[in-house]
Amino acid sequence: MRRLSAFLTTISILAAMAACTLDKTVHVTGVSFDRTSVTIREGEYVTLIPIITPDNADNKRVALSSSREEVAAFDYCGNVFGIKAGTATVTATTLDG
After folding, report:
1. What is the predicted pLDDT for the residue at 81?
2. Which helix (H) or strand (E) holds 4?
3. What are phi and psi of 53, to 5 degrees?
4. Judging by beta carbons within 10 Å of its beta carbon (0-12, 13-18, 19+), is residue 74 exposed, middle or buried?
5. Distance between terminal CA atoms of the chain?
6. DSSP string spanning 7-67?
7. What 8-state DSSP symbol labels residue 84?
8. d(CA 71, CA 89)
């Protein structure tokens, strides 16, 4: 009976230790751009800088998307190119979720 008791005590201690392990990852709580709107002429480009909050987030990577890629397209450096006249929304989505 003593072995069983010692075994159960060990399991209880390990379970308590596992419950105390905290996720120390700093998750993203918001993303925006350095400007809220911009006019880009056909053939020109503007660099949009994503602003991630909090500043100390562990994964600051973002994916960009354009509501109308025939009007505004982008590259992986955050440059948004004017393709033709029109209106488009560029959205940044964090890879952190």
Report:
1. 96
2. helix 2-20
3. -120, 140
4. buried
5. 49
6. HHHHHHHHHHHHHH---------EEEES-S-----TT-EEE--EEEESTT-S---EEEEES
7. S
8. 10
Mean pLDDT of the 61-75 span: 93
User: Residue 42 contacts by C-beta under 8 Å, 6 or more apart in sequence?
Assistant: 82, 83, 84, 85
Q: For residues 31 and 57, what is the distance between their CA atoms, to the nearest angstrom? A: 11
Alpha carbons within 13 angstroms on the beta-carbon side of residue 40 total 24
At 11-61, the pLDDT tens digits run 555 555 555 557 789 999 999 999 999 999 999 999 999 999 999 999 999
